[in-house]
Write a structure and sequence with these properties.
The protein is an alpha+beta fold. 32% of the residues lie in helices and 22% in strands. It is elongated. It starts with 8 loop residues before the first strand and ends in a 30-residue tail after the last helix.
Length: 133
Amino acid sequence: MPDEKTGEYLGTGRRKSATARVRIKPGNGKITINHRAFEAYFPVEEHRMVVNEPFVATENSEKFDVRVNVTGGGQAGQAGAVRLGIARALLEVDGELRPTLKAEGLLTRDSRVKERKKYGQPGARKRFQYSKR
């Protein structure tokens, strides 16, 4: 169901500590992230490829305009969050895309997050050096 006011399809993606709110609507393939151009926001080619994976898998590269608000995390986490958000929004557009997106692994939320630091220790897993004497 598209949003009543704007006619956009919504999708939310998360990865590590990044959260992306994605809105797509039929258009000519323009991607805007945090009010900035796609190439300016993700200067690394690998991150741009990650973001475009759902469109490439479903052959919808130039059919939708994408608007994204993304917060938290770093570049890689944000790219993964945007990818999941786009895949979920494409499902809202057409439910028939589910098998294609699922086969590519684009609907699975990567649950790996940074482990918290434990008290009395220098890090999450690191321990102070053992002294026998």
